[in-house]
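As a next step, we paired sequence with structure tokens, yielding the entry below.
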Amino acid sequence: MVLLRLYQRHTCLYSRAITSPAHILRRLNSTTAASSSSASPSLSWNDFLRVRSYRRVTNLGVAGIGGTVGLIVGYNLLADDVIDPTATVYGVDPFIFTALELFGFGLVGAIIGRGIGDVVFKFAVLRSKAPLFQTKENLFLQHIKKNRVDPSHQSFANPVPDYYGEKITSLHGYRRWLRDCAAYKKKRDEFIK
């Protein structure tokens, strides 16, 4: 009876669609709390890859917000300057120089925003599971480094498949990435011969 309930609970948990890393980490907490205290917590590969892709989307979103804030701050700082259209700044037209300054403010804001997004993700979403996530990520990056292809032979007809593995969001995606790497190697070897 107890085994049947555990099996039903297990299949019910894994049959649900997972939409956020908070749901994954709640599930991880509930399964580790139900298990014995001697067992170490674990994170499945699919759950890890979903949380990893959610982190990437979060970082890109916060970087966009940071870039926008940087542009607004830069515009407010540069709007008070009176631009003489006949003079040059470092040998460059003043309007082009002002546009480059605005671009620099936006870039710095995006970089700072990405760092803030990573910190917020680590402390708000992962909380106490950050070491577990980091261990899994180190293992994943070792797999990527071992299986990635040599990009020195790339061409328009044979592009390198996702060199850093950033777009891998599931085990199915990882297997597809491995097949793409094998196809790249095969095309490279056939072309060289």
Q: What stands out?
A: Helices lie at 2-15, 21-34, 45-78, 94-126, 130-147, 171-192.
